[in-house]
Structures are given as C-alpha cells and as structure tokens.
Amino acid sequence: MRPEQQGVEVAVLVSVGRHPITGRARRADQDARGLELALGLERQLPGSRVSLLHAGPRGEESEAALRGYLGMGLETLTLLEQAEGADAIPALAEHLAAAPPQLVITGARAERGEGSGLLPYALAERLGWPLVNGLAAVERVENGVATLLQALPRGQRRRLKVRLPAIVSVDGAAPVARQSAFGPARRAELEATPVAAEPDRELAQWQLAPARKRPKRLKVIKAASARDRFKAAAAKAEGGGGQVLADVTPAQGAEAILKLLREEGVLPR
Amino acid sequence: MLETLLPILIFSALGVAVIGAWRRVRLWRQGRPSAVPLLKGLAAMPRRYLVDLHHVVGRDKVMSNTHVATAGGFVAAAVLMTLVHGLGLANPWLGGLLLLASATMFVGSLFVARRRRNPPARLSRGPWMRLPRSLMAFSLGVFAITLPAVGILPAGFGHWLLGLLLAAVVAWGLAEMVVGMTWGGPMKHAFAGALHLAFHRRPERFSTKAGGEGRSTGLKALDLEDPSAPLGVETPADFTWNQLLGFDACVQCGRCEAVCPAFAAGQPLNPKKLIQDMVVGMAGGSDAHYAGSPHPSQGLGGKPVGEHHGTPHGPIVAREGKALVDAETLWSCTTCRACVEECPMMIEHVDAIVDMRRFLTLERGETPNKAPEVLDNLIATDNPGGFAPGARMHWAADLDLPLIADLQQVDVLLWLGDGAFDMRNQRTLRALVKVLRAAGVDFAVLGNEERDSGDVARRLGDEATFQSLARRNIATLAQYRFQHIVTCDPHSFHVLGNEYGELGGHYRVYHHSTYIAELYESGRLAFRPWKGGSVTYHDPCYLGRYNGEYEAPRNVLRALGIQVSEMERSGFRSRCCGGGGGAPITDIPGKRRIPDMRMNDVEATGASLVAVGCPQCTAMLEGVVDAGAEVRDIAELVADALVARPAVGAFDATRRPQAEEVI
Ligand code: SF4
Ligand code: SF4
C-alpha cells in the first residue's frame, strides 16, 4: 500500500516572456514549463489546486502573453497590477504570505527586464522558505514533505526531500509546456488587484541595451581519425588545463589571473 | 383483389415514408442553423442533379447509364404507379408509360446486379447487397401488375394466389424503395441526396446556366469576434444542419476511399467511413453496422468496427479512450480534395475535417506532433520555421529585387511564400525572377513585409492565427498598388485568391505557370527546344482541384517543346504528394509514405523528370529516397530554356513609361 498522498496547493508565478528572435511578448518558456509541471502534479495528486500569479502592468501585449498560460487549461489568473518598472518581489511576497500555498513554482529566469534569475531567491529569503532550483519532476508529496527530482548538468538527477511550503524553480529540464488553446485562453479571466507599487530604484538607474551573444570559445580539435574527432566532439565541455590555487596570498592569486589573461590574449602580453 | 390491395399498399407505403421523412428531418435539424434560400435551392436542384452530379457520375460511363436507367425508371414508375394503381387512372397511355418505366428500371437493376456480383472493395456490402434484388422486385412487380391495366392480360387473369404473390413482391419493392428511402435503407441517398443538392452549403460550387465556373474551395471563416460563437465542431450536432444532411446523402460508393492518398498509405483515415461515422453520430449508436472497408490501419493495431460510438451531443473525439472517430483520423488528411472531387453526392469532406480540427486545436490545444511548435512559430515569427522575419530576403541578397515599398505601385507583386526560407525553393524563386526579368515584367516584392499566408495554420485548425496573419497581410497589401499577384506557391495562391476575400482582401492572383503561359503567348518569352528525356507533370492539389488550373502548366511545358507523358492519375485525378493540410507536420504514421506512392506513379510513366509547380510538392517528391526521376519546378525549366526574345527591346523601352502614364 502506498501511503496516502494528498492534494497540494500550487501557485505558479508567471511572467511576460519575450521571443528570442522577434522580441514579441509570449508566454515565457520556463514559466510555461513550470505550469506544465504543476498541471502534471494536479493529475498525479487528485485534489491539488493550481493557481497562476503575475505581478506587473496590464496592457494589451502583456495580457495576450498571460492568456497564453491560461490557454493551457486554467480559468483564472491573479494579476497583481503594478506600474511599469515596479518591483515585483514585495508584491508577490506579500500576496504569497497572506494565503500561503504549499508549493510555489517559477521559471528560473525571466525573458525580459533584468532576467537576473534572482526572483526565486529573493522570494525564498523574504518568506523564509526553502528553494530548490532546476526542478525536473515532483515525485511525491506526503505529509507535507515533497520528494523532488532536481536536474543536474549532463542529464544527472538528484532526489531531494523538501519540507513544504517551498519554492522551486524550473529551467529547460522540466517537461515541455503543452499547447496553449485559443478558446480557453480567450474565456479565462484575469483577476486584477492593484497593489502598492514600490518602484525598483536600482533598476531605474540601470541602462538597458539589447544583449549581444557572447563569443564562444572555439574548440581546436587535433584529431587524426574519425573516431578521435567524434570523441572530441562528444567530449564534455570542460577546460582541461586548470589549476587549483590554494593557500596563496592575494598578490600571488592576482598574478596567476593576470598571467592567464595574458596567455589567452585577453590582455596584451 | 389487386385493385383493392394496391391502393392500400401504395398509400400506406407513402404514409410510412412521410413519417420517416419527418423523423429524418428532425435528425438533421439537430445541427446548427445555416441560412440557405430554401425555395431557390429547390428550384436549382434539378439542374444541380442533371448537370453537376451527373458530371461526376458520368466519369464512369457504365455506372452512369445504369443509374440513369434505374433512377429515372424508378422515379417515373413511382409517379405513374401512384396515378395508375393508387388513384386508379387506368388509362392505357399512362399504363404503357408505366410499363416502359418499369422495364427500363429492370434493365438498370440487371446492371446493378452485375456490379454487385464481385463488388470492388470500395463498395459497401451489408444491406447494399440486397439492393439489386429489391430493385428487381419493384420493377418486375410493377410491370406485372400493370399488364392487366393496359389490357395486355385480362383483368381477372390468374389465380388469386398469383395475385397475392404479386402483391407481396410489390410490397417488398415498396418497402425498400419508398419506405427505406426515409427510414435509413440504402435508398436513403436519393431522399437525402436530393435535399442535399438543394440546400448545399456551397451553392457557388454548382455550375449555372450563365456559364458560372462552379468552383468553391475556400474554407469558410470562423466568427472570432463573437466570444460566444463556437470554435469548430465538437459534437455531431455542432455541424450545420445542411452539413448533417450532406453526410446522410452518402451512397457508400467508396469513390472517395479509392482516391484518398491517406487511405492508400495505410493511415487511419477512410473518408467514406468518416462520413458514415458522422451519420452514426447524428443518429446515435455505434459503427458496428458499417459494411465497407474500415481504416486500413492494421499496422496500428487495427480498427475493427463496433468499437466506436457516438451520440448527437456527445464528443466526436474523446479526450481519453474512444468516441466516434480517433484524432489521428482527422490529422491524417492532406486536404487534397480528391474525395470531394470524386464524390457523386457532392459531400464536403474537407470542410468537415477542418471543422473538427478547429475544435481540437482551438478548444483543446491538441494539435499533434510538431504542429504546436509550428503554430507558435507562426505566431511569434510569422513563418512556420521560426526564422527571423528580417532574413526573408537573404536568398536574394545579390538579385537587387525591387521592393514595393520603394515603388509604391507596380504591375506584378511577386509573392514569395515561406519557400523564401527554404534552400531548395530559393532555386525556384531565383529561376522565376530570371524569367520575369527576361520578359521585362514590371514587378516588385514585399520583402520583409510579407508574412506566411496562413495556409498551414488554417488547415491545422488554428483559425485565430490564420486570421491574424491574413488581416495583417491584407493591411500590408492595402498600402500598395499593383495589378495582380504572382506566386509560385499554390497554397499562397489559393489562400490569397480564395480565402482572403471573406476577410476583405480581394486580389487577382496568378500561379506562376499561368503567368508564364500568358507571357509566352504574348510573345514575351522565347525558349530553346527541349533536349532532355521524357517528362511527366504532377498537378498540385491546390492548383488543380482547388483552382481548376490544369492547362497552363501543360501549355508552358508544350511551349518548352516537352511532350508530357501523363501519369495515370493526373489532372483532376492527380494524387496528392502528401504535403498539404499540415500532414507532414502532424505526421500520422501509416504503412507507406504518400510521396513514395506518387513517385512510383511518376516512375511508371518512364519519365526521367517530373515537372512540379509547388514548393511543397518539390520538397515531398525530392524527399523520396532512391527516386528514379528528377524533380524540377516549371520555373526552373523555363529559366533554363530562355533565349533572347526575337523582338528585343520592344517591351523594355516602352513598358515602364506606359505603366506610369496610365495612372
Ligand atoms: S482530402 Fe484527400 S487526404 Fe483528405 S480525406 Fe479527402 S482524399 Fe483523403
Ligand atoms: S462520401 Fe461520397 S464518394 Fe464517399 S462513399 Fe459517400 S457518396 Fe461515395
């Protein structure tokens, strides 16, 4: 007999995404995966409830993007309406603290704005809840403890037990989001509650510019045979020639870094 | 004795038939409302039957004559019988005509019987197998009882037992032919079919006396403005009433099944079964009584009849388990319209399939396989591949193509289509540009302002994305002035020409083959004679069946000096390449691939080259492994054969200024 599993209250934090090529507003990929995870959980644990939460301004473009999540099969989304550029963290933390769900799921990083990926951490800190990042699956929820599968690089997985309430963040390792359907998206409701806007002062001082792709280091492959070439292509992307400096003075450390930068041609020799 | 028995028999049969008709009409009226001019439709019905329907039936001469004899004989016999035997108008003239009619019908029924001896797999069995005997019973019975009426036999001839026997035969005939017509026997097709012709939801598809073309192939738009308007068809009752009526008209002749590429490929779709499933759903029940060939899907675990069931207000596609049809059935269709083209009852399979797909996509978000990704790309990047919209003209970086935004007005707007992102199609586009330049055509392109036409989105059931793309394209096109649009993509051609109209975009669109044919005829192109091997031509569905253009591509090939060795299935019978309707995206497995079958058709002609006129066809046919024939677009063949025009300069010098002066 499997121990009794109860349903859980899940809140999924969603943001307005940005298509990487055209920059059009859309449901953000990671947030949508988070919602997919939550909907999977709802199936797995009957009696679970999934709610959607977004903090931000209401506009035509952002509404269309938010409806993208609703088209996955939800009837409402709670919109904490804020002015453009307001800090979402206090508003979200306050809302979550007022009626705490057991599990908060969010994408690891927003597709527009700062996109620093700090939101889950800041929320966890404010609420005092544990945080698990890179979630791949929720295996079980029993007696207020969730068994989670965390994704590690190169397909590895780690099983964790976390006491609820907790915040989890998902990235590309979580299941792909289901299709968003037009009809349900159009019918669903945005329940807007205006919240006190706390302008994000730090952000206001920033200068925003479109990101440029960081240049990739070319792998120089010196391989004689096809087998070697294949091995080199499939090899882990790890720098081989590193050195570990332990117990060195700051000056020695700085010297080592400077030497490396010269070697790599970042600084003139 | 017969004199008293016959009127009773005839009028009770008619009475029961009227009750049946009323019940049948109630079944149809479960559907959604659809405004059709009832009286006008009824008035047009005889012409639609005699001209349009027989145009299709007449493709099979024997069957057509059989039907004329049997049906014509029956209608005449039924009317005359009611007069002669029902009302007792024992006029020898009427009686003589009645003898003639029933004899004709009998001859017809002999042919029906002959065909039923070894019926091809596409024909349904079951109750249909008894039909020849019923036809004979009716015609012979009526013939025999009429003999005394015209005085060939004395009135009191024969024993009373013989009379009773005759009455029984006539009763059998009446039961099948009159009662069965409205109570769901094989003869139902006559009753439902006649009304279906009258109340068809596409009255434009019928020819008119004035010589109307009689083609209507564009899908009808969904009302997206009204949030309470339904998005597609979930239950049988969500079809319009005249669609339900249309399904009921099916004679189970299986002509659609015989031409369906998805069926031939072993995918889980049989258009005839699909229509029958709709009839089952409309009346409620299971498909256990279906007596034709089911889905050819043994490879998928088989689909025996009797497992699917439905009700008028129950779902057609179940979320889990089975209902009336499986989703893969709907997604197997390439929207090639071969079934519609062949259907003698003028049933619109593609409309029905897209209606049901719309529900699955717009309400359930269940478009299979890669389709959600393609739809997301269309929404985010305006092209199905998810390419940067700004890269649309990269293929033409060296061609210095004029942009319509710079010129504001031109003769020809060259619509590139999404083939602009595809390396293979870029070769076709370059060839087409070369041809247009050689002919001195005043043309321009939209460049990065062009978007996907919305064809794939619409056929995948995503009407919202289609309309969004269409409206933005229409707004873009409205900024510029041009005489007509030329495109090498029949899908864009069809959508721009036949489907944008409903949304407010009216254009004269040419397929490049038509346009090249016209250029050649007006002497603006000259070709060197063809030196290659033998060539066949593959008619794209969206050019041929959708738009009736069979001749222009052949004229162009002829002008090139190519003698086309036709495939068995060409022209309006052309077999689909498998690329339409989003089928390569939904990718429902079968036993064979549709393009492989088409390439076999090509190889059967012995041709070493197949000329095509569609980027999809090119891609599908070129994707065939170990193909025996090369695939070239007509534009490429033309570009390769170009030689300097005889009267060089005559056009170049005058064309531009002329075009500018006129306006
Ligand atoms: S449109 Fe073509 S693929 Fe679809 S059912 Fe008809 S014949 Fe088959
Ligand atoms: S749908 Fe048309 S072609 Fe197909 S079986 Fe019925 S009547 Fe014949």
UniProtKB/TrEMBL annotation, chain A:
Name assigned to this protein: Electron transfer flavoprotein subunit beta
PANTHER family the record matches: ELECTRON TRANSFER FLAVOPROTEIN BETA-SUBUNIT (PTHR21294), ELECTRON TRANSFER FLAVOPROTEIN SUBUNIT BETA (PTHR21294:SF8)
Pfam families given in the database record: ETF
Keywords annotated in UniProt: Electron transport, Transport
UniProt superkingdom: Bacteria
Electron transfer flavoprotein alpha/beta-subunit N-terminal domain boundaries: 16-198
Species in which this protein is naturally found: Halomonas rhizosphaerae
SMART domains: ETF
Family: Belongs to the ETF beta-subunit/FixA family.
Record-linked InterPro entries: ETF_a/b_N, ETF_b, Rossmann-like_a/b/a_fold
Family matches, as Gene3D superfamilies: HUPs
Automatic annotation (TrEMBL), chain B:
The protein's name: (Fe-S)-binding protein
Provenance organism: Halomonas rhizosphaerae
Organismal lineage: Bacteria, Pseudomonadati, Pseudomonadota, Gammaproteobacteria, Oceanospirillales
Residue ranges, annotated region (Disordered): 290-314
4Fe-4S ferredoxin-type domain residues: 241-271, 321-352
Pfam families: CCG, DUF3483, Fer4_9
Transmembrane stretches, start-end: 6-22, 68-87, 93-113, 134-153
Superkingdom, taxonomy of origin: Bacteria
Annotated Gene3D superfamilies: Alpha-helical ferredoxin
